[in-house]
């Protein structure tokens, strides 16, 4: 059970300690502890909101999912900045520059496609994500070989979703074709 350093009382966790949410929360709290940050009720609430989401969310969306007593909007901003610095969250963007945040408990980056017409976000399918990850790793290796340090990347795709996609198989992968 996780103890809050603010209150020294156990924090509420789900009844099913084996749930993926509880396990992810435990991993996140361990990373906070190892970085020397306190585990507070607002941080727990924000982490839980991020863990429950499968797609990135804006700070305002995350704040709206929290109870009114959990924390204020400024606390969400500050916590997400700290989480991003620790690598607990990844930031991505809408095409208009709005920041979106997603929990990042593993080292596998996820890539997204943002629909320009309605700002909906979808995750890149696994085949394309693997191909992109491999290409990015090669580029990062080349940059490191050229003397660059602390290399990272941020990639977002912006497109208009097809209105009437025709699925076809090309090179063993299902592709969508726009008329």
From TrEMBL:
<dbReference type="InterPro" id="IPR002481">
    <property type="entry name" value="FUR"/>
</dbReference>
<dbReference type="InterPro" id="IPR036390">
    <property type="entry name" value="WH_DNA-bd_sf"/>
</dbReference>
<dbReference type="Pfam" id="PF01475">
    <property type="entry name" value="FUR"/>
</dbReference>
<protein>
    <submittedName>
        <fullName>Transcriptional repressor</fullName>
    </submittedName>
</protein>
<dbReference type="InterPro" id="IPR036388">
    <property type="entry name" value="WH-like_DNA-bd_sf"/>
</dbReference>
């Amino acid at each position: 059970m996780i103890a809050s350093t603010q209150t020294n009382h156990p924090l509420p966790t789900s009844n099913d300690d084996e749930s993926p949410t509880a396990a992810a929360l435990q991993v996140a709290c361990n990373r906070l502890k190892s970085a020397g940050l306190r585990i507070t009720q607002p941080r727990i609430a924000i982490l839980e909101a991020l863990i429950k989401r499968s797609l990135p969310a804006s700070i305002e969306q995350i704040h709206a999912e929290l109870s009114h007593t959990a924390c204020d909007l400024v606390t969400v901003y500050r916590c997400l900045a700290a989480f991003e610095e620790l690598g607990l969250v990844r930031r991505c963007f809408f095409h208009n520059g709005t920041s979106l945040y997603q929990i990042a408990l593993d080292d596998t980056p996820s890539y997204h496609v943002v629909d320009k017409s309605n700002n909906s976000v979808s995750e890149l399918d696994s085949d394309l994500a693997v191909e992109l990850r491999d290409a990015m790793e090669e580029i990062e290796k080349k940059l490191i070989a050229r003397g660059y340090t602390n290399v990272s990347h941020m990639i977002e795709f912006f497109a208009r979703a097809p209105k009437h996609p025709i699925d076809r198989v090309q090179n063993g992968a299902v592709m969508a074709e726009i008329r």
